Task: structure prediction
Amino acid sequence: MRRRASLVLLAFAVFCTALAPLLRWYAYPRLAKIPPSQYQEIVLEAKDAILLDYFDGMKPKKVDKVTVIQTLKGNVEASREIEASAGKDVVVWDSLSHVVGPDGKMVSQIPERYIFDAHTQDPVHATGEMVDGDAVKREGIEFKFPFFTEPRDYLYFDAQTRTSAPIHYVGPRKFRGMDVYYFEQTVPWTKVPMPKKMPIEGIDPTTIEATTGTTLWYTAKRMFWVDPVTGAPVNGEQIMDQELRGGIAAGGEGGKLTAFSGHVKMREDYVRHTVDLVSANRIKVLTLHTYAPIGLGVTGLGLFGLALWLEARSRRAAAAGSAARATPA
Result:
């Protein structure tokens, strides 16, 4: 009976020991990916900001709050079309940054289409990749860092300038009880395209510079607190300034007019929701990558040891029985 039990345990030991590396190096690289149908909404606020009042003499005014509503919507149909030619799992995010003033009126809307590898977050270049209707070719990451983010600099795409630059790893931090990596990126003053959708109907931003000589300039300090396991930011902030320069609107050559200045932060309820969501996803990724493989490996070794122990006991009992039968009465 003991021998039969030891054989059963040995079979389970072999199964667990073989499954552990299979789960880690075969299943994990295929199963750990961003779902193509993901939908996410984040609300950010800049309190006590400066905002250009387009309806009152084009003057910058201090306002209580400017709100940014950012949505990310997975486009499953577009993902499947691109996957057919790319030969790998692809995610297509249709993003919209909708900015409103304290009166609830729209300040600007900037749509994006971001196409990337579902496993590595590397950009995938395909028809439709754009920012505000302008075709772009991203280099580096945007919105999300890779799974198991490393403590190093990454190339990060800035939608305003349509260019990529390093986002610097500053060091480890604690955020709401989580161990995270903190990153910073500073974008120097750069001339950028004006948003195609402006607060005043009938204004074509593409003709503003040509007819008035006024240009839009932008600088920002971007900050992310990133969970290194999932690569998802649990918090993001941005100190941003925009200026209209030159031309009629800014008071002539050399003139400057603040279009926006403020510290944009995630609203508290969305911070809490993001932390809870990332914490749950972190456990799933760690289970697939670390906990389950190690647990199966340890279980396999334990079962193997138990099988050997039962087999040894079985043999000792058999040997003792043989010796007893061989001893004369």
